[in-house]
Structures are given as C-alpha cells and as structure tokens.
Amino acid sequence: MASKCSICSSKNRQKIEQLYLSGTSLRKIAEQTGTKVTTLHRHFSGNHMDEKLIKAQEKKESLQADEILTEVEKLKNRAYTLLKQSEKEKSFFASAAFIREIRQILELFARLAGRLKEQQQMNITIMNHPQFIAIQTKILTFLDKYPEVKQAFIQELEAEEATVE
Question: Is the terminal CB of the chain with fewer CB neighbours within 10 Å at N or C?
Fold first, then answer.
C-alpha cells in the first residue's frame, strides 16, 4: 500500500504550495519549511496541488497582467495628448519626438499583449514541470544506492535551478 503524501497532510501545505506557485525553487522551499527536496518533488509531480490555490494564483497573475496593460494604455493616451498639444503650438521637433514615443508605446503594447496572454497559458518552467520533477524523483530514488553520485547530482540540479532563478 502506498504511503500518504506528507505534504498533503502537513500544516505547512498552503505555505509550501504558495511558495511553489510564486516561483520559489524547491531547494529554497525545503530550506524554509524543513522538508526534503525529494518529498517536494513527489508532492508536485503527483498533482497534489490544491486546485483553489492554483486558480487563485492564475487570477492574481491575470489581474497583474491587466494592470500592466492599463498602465501602458495610460502612457499611450498621455503621449497622444502631448502630441496634439505640440501640434497646436506648431512645435514640429516635439511633435516628431511624441510620434516616435507613440510608435514605441504601441510596439510595447503589442508585445506585452501577446506575451502576457502567452505567458498566462505557459506559466510553468521546466524545473517545476511535473514530468521533470517525476524524472528527478525517480533518479534520486535510484541514486540512494550511490550516495556520492546522488549528492553530485543534487548539486548539479541546484546549480541549474540557481541559473533559472
């Protein structure tokens, strides 16, 4: 009979899952919560996450994306207002500068709109992807027979995670 997931029954479950969803590395979560990295791997690769917490995180990210787009929209409107003012004053150099600014703002707006929508759908890094975690867990379990190799492997994983953060 399979043993129950210790994270699922932990009093720190919500904190652990919030840290994970905020992008904190499994190594750092383990340090902060006194949990083993392999235990965290098993929890997250086993799809044990609280669905309500996942949905709340997705909603938060969506609101943040909307706030960024709103700020860019405000910049665009302000630039248009300044362009109209400079045209009334027949300040051609200022008008040309505002036209360039508006062009850059529109490019930024288009890039952000596309990336933010794409990012909302692709918000998982490979290091936190359940299949990657499952593979790591299997390798770490296998390497229990070879402690020195296991330690070297863990150090390589941690170094890789540090470059991702």
Answer: N
Query: Which is nearest to 130 in space by CA: 64, 54, 62?
Result: 54
pTM for this one? 0.39
Find out whether 136 and 157 touch, Cβ atoms under 8 Å: yes
Is the same domain home to 69 and 111?
Answer: yes
pLDDT score at 28: 92
Q: 132 with 155, same domain?
A: yes
Tokens of 30: 């383990």
- C-alpha pair distances (Å), 6 with each of 40, 42, 139: 9, 10, 20
Q: Pick the more confident residue, 133 or 69.
A: 69
Average pLDDT of the chain to the nearest whole number? 77
Residue type at position 107: E
